[in-house]
Amino acid sequence: MSSEHAVNVSLETHLVSALEPLLFITDSSLSTRLVQHLSDPRGIIPYDILLSVSRWSRSATGSSALRACSPPLDPNSYTMIALLAGTTTSPERKFGPYQPPQEPERLVAQEKRERKAITTIINGVLSIIGSGAAAWIGSERTNWRQEWRVLFALFVAVIVAISETALYIIWQSRSSSHPTTAKTRKYIRAKKEDKENSSLPNHSYTNGEDHGGLRLRIQKKSTSNENLQ
Asked: Which sequence ranges are marked TM in the entry (predicted)?
């Protein structure tokens, strides 16, 4: 039996009403299984029983038996789509809470932190190797034996490794204590009438004082023209 046929379906009221007439017209094995699960106090029925009912209703024997009932029953009412409509799959199981996918901004920020952490680790490893090599080369003129030179290079490399580890721990703690919050974009919807009003030209001479000033300038201009004449 496949995993999809091992699941249960909630035994709803309309499903019980559709299956009860089949107790007297189906074969004995299917009828026995229906009686067993229709009286189940848990209110569930296996998916494979509904699948058997659907296959039986589409057979020649099942279609004839359904139409011979009084009143006649429609074979299309026993398809899987009709039987599963309004039901719940595996109602007795408790699934975990839904975890929505992360926002694209958070994913980008997380990938950026991961790349920065990888770069920091690579730089630390290179610093350890470089400091050890520099200590080995620098001790060449000290006339030390090879053993002392090796110990000196290892000592310098260990000191640098400890410092790099401490710096990485500090950086990691600071980055984890300041999580990046996704920025929410806010959109402002302007009213249509405000948009129309803003598109109109703003005339500064609509009041009485501006009209008076305009008449005064016209009178002064006409007076100056008369004086010239």
From this structure: 117-138, 150-171
